[in-house]
Design a protein that fits this description.
The chain has a domain of 111 residues. 33% of the residues lie in helices and 36% in strands. The chain contains 1 helix and 8 strands; from the N terminus they run αββββββββ. The strands form 2 sheets. A 5-stranded antiparallel β-sheet has the order 1-2-3-4-5, with helices on one face. The protein has a 3-stranded antiparallel β-sheet with strand order 6-7-8, covered by helices on one side. The chain starts with 11 loop residues before the first helix and ends in a 9-residue tail after the last strand.
């Protein structure tokens, strides 16, 4: 006499079980994909905001390294004075309406912040001077503070 062995999942029940496992796998994969996409977007947005803040601060440092003579007006305006030919000109770097702005004009004209050209988004910009050092702080759109210290070069070299 032959003994017939029966499996716990046979026939139709086995097919339903395999299909249910595949559905659970597909739903889990979709949820994982959506979660990863959300994390990627958050990182990308934060990285873009920080990049803009770092780039704006690097631009200001580049302007400070030019041949212009830097000084500070109040706590939020950087003034760079230079001669173009024989005429004196000023460059003002400041923050207005959530934008880091730059205004270049004749030194004979009064400073008008409404004429500034936007450079980058910035929540705040502050400048302080301590002797020959200028301290810059830029608050980017993501709320991250970027700081830098610039030491002025000697205007004239001293002969030994």
């Amino acid at each position: 006499m032959e003994v017939k062995q029966t499996l716990p999942f046979s026939g139709r029940a086995r097919g339903v079980f395999v299909f249910a496992l595949l559905c659970v796998y597909a739903v889990t994969a979709c949820l994982l994909l959506l979660s990863g996409l959300q994390v990627y977007r958050a990182i990308k947005d934060k990285s873009a905001a920080h990049y803009e803040g770092r780039t704006a601060l690097a631009y200001v440092l580049g302007k400070l390294r030019s041949d212009a003579t830097p000084s500070v007006m109040g706590t939020n305006v950087l003034l760079l004075s230079e001669n173009v030919g024989t005429k004196p000109y000023n460059t003002y770097i400041f923050c207005r309406d959530g934008q880091l702005c730059e205004y270049f004009g004749s030194a004979a004209l009064a400073f008008d912040p409404t004429l500034g050209e936007p450079l980058a988004r910035a929540a705040a910009f502050s400048v302080t001077q301590d002797g020959a050092r200028i301290y810059l702080t830029l608050l980017d759109g993501a709320g991250e503070a970027h700081t830098a210290c610039f030491g002025q070069r000697a205007q004239k070299e001293v002969a030994p």
